[in-house]
Amino acid sequence: MIRQISVFVENEPGSMMKVTSVLTESHINIRAISTFDTPEFGIMRLVVDEPQRAKESLTAKGFVTRVNRVIGVELEDRKGNLNQMLKILADGEINVNYIYSFVIREGRAPVMIFHTDDYEKAEKVLKEADVKLIEDTEL
Amino acid sequence: MIWSKEETLPRSEIEAIQLTKLKETVRYIYDRVKPYRDKMDAAGVKPDDIRTLDDLRRLPFTYKADFRDNYPDGLFAVDKKEIVRYHASSGTTGKPTVVGYTRNDLDMWLNNVARLACMGGATSDDVAQISFGYGTFTGALGLHGGLEKIGASVIPMSSGNTNKQIMFLQDMGVTLLVATPSYALHLGEEIRKRGIDPEKDLKLRIGLFGGEGMTEPMRDEMHKVWGKDFICTQNYGMSELCGPGVAGECTELCGMHINEDWFIPEIINPETEEVLPPGELGELVVTCLGKEALPLVRYRTGDLTRLMYEPCRCGRTTARMENLSGRADDMLVIRGVNVFPTQIEEVLFKIDEIGPHYEILVERKNRLDVMTITVELIDDRLLDSYAKLSELEARIQRALKSQLGLATQIRLVAPNSLKRFEGKAKRVTDLRKDGL
């Protein structure tokens, strides 16, 4: 299990920087970040080394912040691997709300982060298919 | 044309009518309406104390809040079975202000509307398109009935559906338009966008506007859009008083003639409540004369204006009120609909996912009023997906729509991003300049 933090940001200059500066002051390490193109407000999603402390720091500064579970999957950098994982989920009729990726340092395989409302089921079908899931501790 | 002889009486005769009716009205409300009797007893005034028109100022004021406190019909003076019509407008909070009419009230009302239609140049030859929204608001059915009284042909178009509006204007040879001034400007521009020149291609010659104030810059725009010979007047009323029909501009355009045999106007300083002399700017207070279902004494309209008593070049001798110069309270008029910030607040406070602070921004875009309400998101559970945030926006919009009858735009912002106020909050920003 990976715990992701989501932060509500307004769509205006400097709004993301305000979030990263709070995290920097709190000595929190950002592993991955993702936002989408939206007209008025955005949800900034981050994977950090200490999600609970990150939430506390951001909440103290007045940000609406949420910690939730996402699934992290390590995929070897080979053709068709992402497709294969998505097929496992599709066969299990699991809806993926969003997905983003990052690379763990020191040349290891890329990690796909995805969010689904069927967390337990997704975890189960992926484990059954021998897909390597990443835990918080491995980041 | 002048519809009633009462519009041209010498001052002394108008005042004689007013005094007779005032005495009857005060006796009537004291006998029949408990909230009035209680207020008069508390103020130590009896019906017999009203001997001259000046004694009017001994009577207590009636406020919009009295409608709320006596909702729905506690201020009514007749039994339900005598009511032939109900209307309603926005209240200061969740409940509407309900008004009622007896058969005689309807007749009086629509005769008063007929007067202002004539003031604005209407005749029995006119084909009138009513582009106010129908429903419980008094505007549409008021103008509808008044124009029927003078024998005009009435098209109950209602608001919206611009294409249909334009088709009827063209195909039915419409000569008279009833609308809010901002909607009339919007419609005129849409017509010109379609390559139609109102001066050459339409028969429209008269606009009777109400529901919101029309400023002089708006009137200038009206002539640019509809043509230089367009006769463009506005009229004044509010549902508590009867609806439209309280006052209207004649074609001399020097203020709105008050139907003084039915309404006594006063101007007061809204803070000190002192009655001001003619010509001074203050809050308009109106006493209705001879209303059966819902008599109203010294009603605080909240509208700021001044009164002029000199006879008009049109031949009418009734007092005129200047075009409105604002409000004494924080009521907004959005697309002709009265909106109180307290109504919005009441809706927002029931929604747990947002904080208690809010801002209201009113702008005019493409001639139409747009109201944007900014609220602070406080519930982190909505961050699971954009869909949840969009659902929250839609839910706030639906709740406001059902409360106000108006579409609004919602802007979600982070907590603590709205300004905090010590003392009286300034939450409303109205960017409509001169109504344009």
Automatic annotation (TrEMBL), chain B:
State the organism of origin: Candidatus Mediterraneibacter stercoravium
Q: In which pathway does it act?
A: Aromatic compound metabolism; phenylacetate degradation
The main enzyme category here is ligase
Q: Name one GO biological process term.
A: phenylacetate catabolic process
What InterPro entries is this protein classified in? Adenylate-forming_Reductase, AMP-bd_C_sf, AMP-dep_Lig_C, AMP-dep_synth/lig_dom, ANL_N_sf, PA_CoA_ligase
Q: What is its EC number?
A: 6.2.1.30
Q: Per the record, what are the reactions this protein catalyses?
A: 2-phenylacetate + ATP + CoA = phenylacetyl-CoA + AMP + diphosphate
CDD domains linked to this entry: PaaK
Return one GO MF term. Answer: nucleotide binding
Q: What is this protein called?
A: Phenylacetate-coenzyme A ligase
Q: Where is the AMP-dependent ligase C-terminal domain?
A: 336-432
Q: What does this protein do?
A: Catalyzes the activation of phenylacetic acid (PA) to phenylacetyl-CoA (PA-CoA).
Instruction: State whether it acts alone or in a complex, and with which partners, per the record.
Output: Monomer.
State the superkingdom: Bacteria
Q: Which family does it belong to?
A: Belongs to the phenylacetyl-CoA ligase family.
* Keywords assigned: Ligase, Nucleotide-binding
